[in-house]
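Progress note, sequence design subtask.
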């Protein structure tokens, strides 16, 4: 018996990274998964994104847990396409959603940024969250759980010195946090919960790319992963360079389950002390 037996979940950005981890972790607790991902690169992003075979691998991993998987290649920036994708998944599973994980995101950093980086980041990390959640609302059952992926960046404030991509990332995640707060009030009478998780550095392709390495090691012309990992721990109070996707997935599963049935409107930091290290107590 799993905590999420017979539940239906939609997860965006599910082809790899945190999204895949969330999908498989939810499946391990009994939830069937509607897995969404773009499976293509974006002009304004500075590192390669997923491919169709990545989404196929996620589906196989989900099905190994003994539940169903339904995949849709879709760009979360495109409202009509997202509504169609969610409708398709819900129909395939017989109607109704119990869990929504709006996770798809990019973070264009380093020297390859352009104004398109601003647009693609806002459209993916903010508009994409709106699209996935708004498309799901007509289908969510009473007592459902909606979870958005934020970031420690949302908690630390503006990052206008990080170029258009970095600035857009911080902006988008801050508005996602406010959206979660305000939406939670609107759906509370149906016992639908809306929360955000805010990770620090996570061991995924969003962190491990040349642009991000240059952010952490601006003193080097062509920093390697090894070079950057020497600086990664500066983000956290705990002596770790980053957390694993599974660390975030554990929080997602908790928020999706009845264990968190009275938790809503929360901003859950999974940041190894990154926030308390940086922001003074204001009590």
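Output:
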């Amino acid at each position: 018996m799993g905590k999420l037996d017979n539940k239906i979940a939609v997860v965006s950005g599910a082809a790899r990274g945190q999204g895949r981890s969330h999908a498989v972790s939810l499946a391990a607790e009994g939830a069937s998964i509607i897995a969404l991902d773009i499976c293509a690169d974006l002009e304004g992003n500075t590192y390669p994104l997923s491919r169709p075979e990545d989404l196929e691998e996620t589906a196989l991993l989900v099905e190994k847990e003994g539940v169903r998987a339904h995949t849709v290649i879709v760009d979360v920036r495109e409202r009509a396409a997202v509504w169609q994708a969610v409708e398709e998944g819900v129909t395939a599973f017989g109607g109704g959603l119990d869990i929504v994980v709006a996770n798809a995101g990019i973070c264009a950093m380093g020297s390859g940024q352009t104004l398109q980086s601003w647009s693609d980041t806002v459209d993916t990390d903010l508009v994409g969250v709106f699209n996935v959640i708004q498309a799901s609302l007509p289908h969510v059952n009473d007592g459902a759980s909606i979870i958005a992926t934020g970031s420690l960046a949302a908690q630390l404030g503006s990052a206008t010195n990080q170029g258009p991509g970095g600035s857009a990332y911080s902006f988008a995640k801050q508005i996602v946090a406010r959206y979660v707060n305000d939406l939670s009030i609107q759906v509370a009478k149906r016992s639908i919960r809306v929360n955000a998780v805010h990770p620090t550095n996570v061991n995924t392709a969003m962190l491990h790319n040349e642009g991000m390495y240059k952010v952490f090691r601006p003193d080097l012309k062509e920093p390697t992963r090894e070079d950057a990992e020497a600086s990664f721990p500066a983000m956290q109070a705990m002596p770790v360079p980053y957390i694993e996707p599974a660390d975030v997935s554990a929080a997602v599963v908790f928020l999706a389950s009845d264990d968190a049935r009275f938790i809503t409107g929360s901003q859950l930091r999974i940041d190894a002390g990154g926030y308390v290290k940086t922001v003074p107590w204001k009590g």
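The chain is about 40% helix and 15% strand. Work on this subtask will continue into the next period as scheduled.
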